[in-house]
Structure formats: C-alpha cells, structure tokens
C-alpha cells in the first residue's frame, strides 16, 4: 500500500512538473514559430506551430537600423540595467551589512522604513519620483531611470543580502579583525566571497527589473536616443514596419541578455559555502 502511494505521488508530481514546463515554454515556442514564419503564414486562419517555410527575414529586419533601431535601444537598456544592478549590489552590500552586524541608534527604524517602501506599488511612486526627477533637471536622461530603479529595488536587495549575511558565522569576521583587518577589509575579503550566491541573485534580480520595466521608462524618457527596449517594442506597434513576425523576433532578442546573464552566473547559486567554516 505504501509503495502504491509513493508511485501515485510520484506520478502526480511528474504531471505537475510537466504541466508547469509546458505552460512556461509554450509561449516562447509560439514566439519563435511566429518569428520564423512569413507574414502570410503568420496571419493564416489555420495556424501551425512548425513553420512551413522558415525564414530569418524578421530577425534581419529587426537588426536593420533603417527598419528598427534595435541596437540603440539595446545599449540603452544594457547601460541602465547594468549600472543599476552594480550600484544596487555595492550600496546594498554596505547597507545590508550594517543592518546585520553593526549596532547603532535607530537601526531597527531604518530597517522597518526600508521595508515600508517596498509595500507601496510602483504606480504610487510615479508622481513623487517625477517631481524629484524634474526638480533635479534629470528628466529624459538615463540617470533618471537608474535612480528610479535603485529606489524600487533597494529594499529587496537589503533584505536578501542582510538575511544572507546573518548566516555567516561572526567568529570568521572576529578572527579576521584579530589578524589586523578593519571592517571594510572584512567585508570585501571575507563577507563578499562567502556571499556570492546572494550577491549574484540580487544582481540578476535588479538587472531583470530594470531591463523589463515599461512604466517608469515611458514616463521619464521621451527622446528616441534614450529609449529602452520595452519602449521601443511598444513603438514598433505604431509604425508602418509593424508585423507580428518582427514583434516576436524583437521580443525574443530582448530576452536573450537575461537568459545569458543567468546562465553565466548560475554556478554561484549554490548553498553551504560557509558549512564547515567554524567547527564547534
């Protein structure tokens, strides 16, 4: 009876995993299929998943500056996302370490205040952020988006890094300081190497938020030379070059950097880096 229950549970588990994978991957297969179809086939009343005559025409059109300034939008998005993620990691590491290790007056209130910001929806922050950005003469600049994304992602960065720092034995840091290291040296030589999984997670999280954002980019950016990919894709809908194949091709190309970034940093997503660091 026990064996039958285990088999049934395993079958249910496999079915749920298969269903999850199918529902996750299927939209991307449809996007790829549409991107490889001709215009006539993409608009056919009898759709099929496998293109009858695959073509790379739509990908070449998207990468053609005369049709769509993909590379301009791409480099704008990359610069903003990378700068935001890097600053979030640097500032978040120092701030989270102070929450996790240092004792000072008002620390608890600072922590609660940071998490309180995260409770507000991004829509509610549009107006005050817009007022601050315009008052600082940063409207329609990449810096305005970097500042905005830092405000949105910093609470989660501090929370994730702070919780991870608390898992590192304090005795490792105490031993390092006894050997002559100061607090900053302890952070960069002890804490950061042991926290690479959390730091990589924060970097990818912030990068994805900045890379995929549409709301704030559409509010703070108006000139084409500063537009990001999400805004560029939305503008493609309203141009004479709009066809489904190009939209799907551009969408797939937009997703490539995030997939590559995750693949390169996947090795850091391991646990137990500090296991055995201190013996009882």
Automatic annotation (TrEMBL):
Gene3D superfamilies referenced in this protein's UniProt entry, alphabetically: MetI-like
The record's annotation in Pfam families points to:
BPD_transp_1
GO CC annotation:
plasma membrane
How does this chain sit within the bilayer?
Multi-pass membrane protein
The record's section on InterPro entries has: BP-dep_ABC_trans_perm, MetI-like, MetI-like_sf
Q: Which residues cross the membrane?
A: 12-36, 70-97, 109-131, 143-165, 186-211, 243-262
Highest rank taxon of the organism: Bacteria
Q: What is its main location?
A: membrane
GO terms, biological process: transmembrane transport
Record keywords: Cell membrane, Membrane, Sugar transport, Transmembrane, Transmembrane helix, Transport
Localization, UniProt:
Cell membrane
- Indicate whether Membrane appears among the record's keywords: yes
Which family is it part of? Belongs to the binding-protein-dependent transport system permease family.
| PANTHER family assigned | INNER MEMBRANE ABC TRANSPORTER PERMEASE PROTEIN YCJP, MALTOSE TRANSPORT SYSTEM PERMEASE-RELATED
Name the UniProt record assigns to this protein? Multiple sugar transport system permease protein
Species of origin: Lihuaxuella thermophila
């Amino acid at each position: 009876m026990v064996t039958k229950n285990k088999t049934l549970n395993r079958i249910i588990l496999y079915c749920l995993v298969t269903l999850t994978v199918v529902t996750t991957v299927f939209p991307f297969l449809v996007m790829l299929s549409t991107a490889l179809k001709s215009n006539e086939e993409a608009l056919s009343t009898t759709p099929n998943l496998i293109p009858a005559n695959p073509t790379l025409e739509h990908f070449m059109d998207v990468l053609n500056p005369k049709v769509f300034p993909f590379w301009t939008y791409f480099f704008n998005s990359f610069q903003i996302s990378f700068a935001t993620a890097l600053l979030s990691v640097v500032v978040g590491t120092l701030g989270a370490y102070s929450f996790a290790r240092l004792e000072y007056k008002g620390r608890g209130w600072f922590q609660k205040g940071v998490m309180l910001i995260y409770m507000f929806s991004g829509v509610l922050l549009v107006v005050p952020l817009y007022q601050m950005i315009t008052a600082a003469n940063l409207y329609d600049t990449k810096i305005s988006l970097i500042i905005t994304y830092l405000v949105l992602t910093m609470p989660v960065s501090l929370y994730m890094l702070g919780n991870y720092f608390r898992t590192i034995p304090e005795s490792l840091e105490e031993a390092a300081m006894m050997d002559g290291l100061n607090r900053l040296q302890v952070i960069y030589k002890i804490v950061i190497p042991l926290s690479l999984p959390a730091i990589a997670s924060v970097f990818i999280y912030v990068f994805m938020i900045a890379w995929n954002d549409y709301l704030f980019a559409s509010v703070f950016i108006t000139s084409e030379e500063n537009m990001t990919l999400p805004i560029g894709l939305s503008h493609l809908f309203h141009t004479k070059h709009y066809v489904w194949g190009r939209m799907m091709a551009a969408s797939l190309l937009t997703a490539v950097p995030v997939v590559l970034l995750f693949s390169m940093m996947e090795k850091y997503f391991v646990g137990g880096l500090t296991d055995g660091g201190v013996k009882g």
